[in-house]
Every structure is written in C-alpha cells, then in structure tokens.
Amino acid sequence: MANESNQKIGTREAIAATVYFLSTKLLISFPQHMAEMGQTAAWVVPIISFITATLGFLIIIALLKCYPGGNLIQASEEAAGPVIGIIASLGYFAFFFATTVILIREFSETVSTALLPRTPLSVIMAVFIIATLVAAYMGLEAITRAALVGMPLIIGTLILLNVLLLPQSDFDTIFPLFGPGLGKLLYNGVIHSGIAGEVLFLSIIVGQLDEEHKVQKMGLASLLVAASFMVVSTLNYSAVFPYPLSLHIAYPGYEASTLIYMGRFLQRIEVAFVFLWVISACIHLALSGYTAARIIQDMLKLPSFKPLLPAFAILGFTFALVPSDVPEATYVDFMIVKTYGGLAVFVIPLILLLITRLKAGSNINRR
Asked: pLDDT tens digits for 41-100?
C-alpha cells in the first residue's frame, strides 16, 4: 500500500478543499454568533477576522520558508526543538479535533431538527462519524477531489439562497453601520480570528501539493473567496433577521430557507437545501478529521494515520455528546475553540518564527 503522504493533489483541489473548510460553518450558527459580537454590524466582524487570519497565514508561510521541504509540524520541531514542537503540534491538533467534534454535534442537530426529528441524535451522529471515517480512510486525494466536484454545490447553494432571500431583506436594519462601536468590532474580529483558522490545513499538507511553491497563492485565494461569501451571507442574514431577533435564531441558514416562497406549486424547498448542506458537512468533517489525524501522524512520526481513526471516532462520538444542547455546543465552538484556537493557529507560528529569526541572528553574530 502506498504511503498516504505520497498522495499528491493539484492546485484546484487544494483551493476547493480550503474554501469548503472555511465556508461550511456559514450553514449552521455562524451568523448568529456574528450578531452577538457585532450587533447590527455583524457582517463587519468576519471582514476583520479574515484580515487578521490573512496576516497569520503569511506568518505561517514565512515560517515554512525557513524550513523548506517540511510542513508546519516539522518546521515547529526544527524551530524550537522536539518538546516545544510537540506542544505546538498538540495545539494545532486540538483546534482541528475540537472543530470536528463540535461540527458533528451541530450538523447532527440541524438534520434532526429539519429532517429526522424522531431519529435519536446519537444515530445521526454515528452516521456522520462513519462517513468521516470512510472518507478519511480513502485519503487526501479522494477527499479533495470530492471537494472539487462539490465546489459548485456549496457556491451555488450560497448564491441561490442569498438571491432568493432578497425579497425578504430590509437593509435599513444594518444601521448603525458600526454597531457597538469600531473599537469593539476590531477587538471581536481580531480575537475571533480562529473562524478562519482552517487555512492552516494548507501548511499541514504542503508536502502533498503538486505545486508546493504556490501554497501562499492558494491560501490567499481561498481566504478571499471564503471571506466574500461569509461577509455577503452574514449581511443578508442580518437584513432578513434584524438585531436583536438574530440572536435567537439557532439555525439561521435553515430558518432563512423556510422563508423562501416561489409559488404555491414550489414550497418547502428548505428540504433541498438541507440535503445539500449534509453533503457539504460530510466533506468538511472528512477534511477536519483527516487533518487532525495527519498532525498526530507527523508528530509521532508514524508510517500511517489509519490505525488512529477508530480511536478518534470513539473519542469524537463521546465528546460530541458532552454539550447538553445546541446553544452550549455553539458557545464552545465560537467562544472557546474559535477564540483560543486563534492562539494555536496564528500566535504559536509567530513565536516560532521569532525564535527562528533569533537563532539565525545568533549564528551570524558567532561567525
């Protein structure tokens, strides 16, 4: 069997997978939490977060350039030694694993509410976990090709949803433009830069890219596309569900789709949207589960990540049942994972880059 690390993916597949990674959260409770932080200016928060994430991504690229031929896990170990390198890698792993666990719960709750209210939540979660296991076992090449094929799916869904919601939108509700104030918006946007933390995915799989030298362009393109959809969709949701009503909509994407009316012979189209969201959720979960497993593989220098998958599945199922309800799960996601996750994703590489520069300056002085 060929080593999974030898699988190569193209530029289009890498960008498609990263856009999926960044954008799929828009289909669940993302707009609600943007309203909590930005009030009437909910759409401004992701602009600031994505700008901050872009700067963080450029720092990661600068670190990778100091250690050519390796990914972020290997660069972290070379920069600060094996002990600190493992601690840094555990931080990256915690971000992706926690993202996987919380999204399993959130997507399962969405399906339970919209399609299968009489099906036990644990059964729906088990289906998502099995789908994630199968996709991760198939490897990165299969997942990213599925993401490329499905890219028109999520883009078409978001565009169609935003267009069909225009008759229900009242853009007077976005005033005052800066909501709670520019200072608070800047603080919330920067501190929650972890909402774009999935761009770290590219630095983990950089060695598997056909055009490794284009990883910076891939990341910037993915961030730009995802940010555009996040900002426009959040703006539209804010116009459909004005603040403070938006604080009480648990599933903004689903609730917004129920408002779409296209005549008496075409109703309940939200069921079609949920079906598309399930496919998007499976691809997102496969990517996050694969990335978490790859981090542990590289950290422990294992020949394969596949033996880890059953253990991760059991842990993921267990931890996904810990939150008592959807509000608690979304709180953990946006107020803990996406907040402190930003430290692991962007601050740790910055510290490692500074250590690398200090070591390089020290070596020059010795000469």
From this structure: 999 999 999 999 999 999 999 999 999 988 999 999 999 999 999 999 999 999 999 999
Residue 9: phi and psi, rounded to 5, are -125, 155
Q: Which tokens in the block code for residue 172? A: 């007077």
Which of helix, strand or coil describes residue 230? helix
For position 154, what pLDDT does the model report? 74
Task: Sort 185 into a burial class: Cβ within 10 Å, 0-12 / 13-18 / 19+.
Answer: buried
- The CATH fold assigned to 38-361 is Amino acid/polyamine transporter I (1.20.1740)
Average pLDDT of span 299-304: 92
**How far is the CA of 290 from the CAs of 140, 199, 203, 270, 326, in angstroms?**
7, 14, 14, 30, 25
| Sign of the alpha-carbon torsion through 28, 196, 299, 135 | positive
d(CA 229, CA 33): 16
CA-CA-CA-CA torsion sign (35, 40, 43, 48): negative
Is there a contact between 300 and 93 (Cβ–Cβ < 8 Å)? no
